[in-house]
Structures are given as structure tokens and as C-alpha cells.
Automatic annotation (TrEMBL):
Source taxon at top rank: Bacteria
Protein name: Regulatory protein TetR
This protein's UniProt keywords: DNA-binding, Transcription, Transcription regulation
Record lineage: Bacteria, Bacillati, Actinomycetota, Actinomycetes, Frankiales
Residue intervals of the HTH tetR-type domain: 13-73
Natural source organism: Candidatus Protofrankia datiscae
Amino acid sequence: MTEDGPRRQARGIRRIASILDAAAALFTAAGYDATTTNAIASAAKISPGSLYQFFPNKPAIAEALTARYVDDLNAIYDHALAIGPGDPAATSKMIDQLVAALVAFHVANPAAKALLSGASVAPDLAMITAPLHSAMCDRAEEIVAAIAPTLTPREQARTAEVCIHIVQALMPMILAAPAASRHEASNELKRALVGYLLTPP
């Protein structure tokens, strides 16, 4: 008796998610370059042959994982833009929720950093993760444009770049903090962004 289409499709979706979860854990622990497809298959509790039914190679796995992260980040930025800036209090609330969501994303997905770090030494990975980098940069510009619509596009791009550097500088401190005090560390990032974005040029 054969499986019906919907059941087979659901099983395939679960298997893909399992493979991506296993790959994410290994990319985080060992790095992209040191991780093999055989190791990913073993961690996902499937045979290498079963893995190749879904992904032809490791770059394809990294590409699918990157797409997952891009979707997550887009949802975060969409939510922030839906809140929308307004007076300083409203803008502060928007930044507060955005930072909280970004911290939660990085806590839940340390492999995102592993992929971006690996991209600096692996040209093929740099191309694969380009959408992830663009999601962070382009959407940051949208946030700045919403907060400071009177700035020129060039000024908005520069302001977004500074914000990204602020986040990159403080995020490691936040992630390294004990879970009980991570909120306090996150507040420092929020204060830095609010202070920078709400200070007249």
C-alpha cells in the first residue's frame, strides 16, 4: 500500500527540516568547511543516500538553511515596520521590539553567524549567504527610512550601516551573557540605537 501524496509530502518536509537542523548544529560546532554531508546525515539519523534525495551537496544544504534564516529575518523586520515609528516614544518601542526579536533570532540560530563567518574565507559560501547579508542590510535601510524619511537615500544607507555595526559590536556581548542577565545587555544595545537614531544630525 503506497503513501498518499499529502502524507508523503509532509514526511518529506519533516525530513528536510531534520536535515537542516542537524546541519545548523554541526555548522555551529565545527564550522561550515569542516562539516561533511556524511556527518550531517548521521546527525539527522538518516543514510547519506537518503540525504542526497533531498540535497545534492553541502552547498545546497547551506543555501536552504540561508533561505530559512532570510524568511525569519524578513518576518522580524516586517513586524517592526508594521509597528511603525512615530513620536520618540513610538520609535523607541519599535526599536525595543526589533532588538528583542533580533537577539532571540541569534540565540536560536547560532549557525547564521557560523555561515556568515565562513563566507569570509569561502567564496562559494559567500555567494550562498549573500541573501542573508542583504536581508540584514537592505531591511535595516528600510527601518532607517521609516524612522528618518527626511534623510537622503545616501544618508539613510550610511545611517543603516552604522546601526548594523553597532548591532555587530554589541551582539556578541549579549549572546555571551547568562540568560538571566541577557535582557540587561540587550538594553544597552537598545539605548545605543535609540540614542543614535533619535539624535538630530
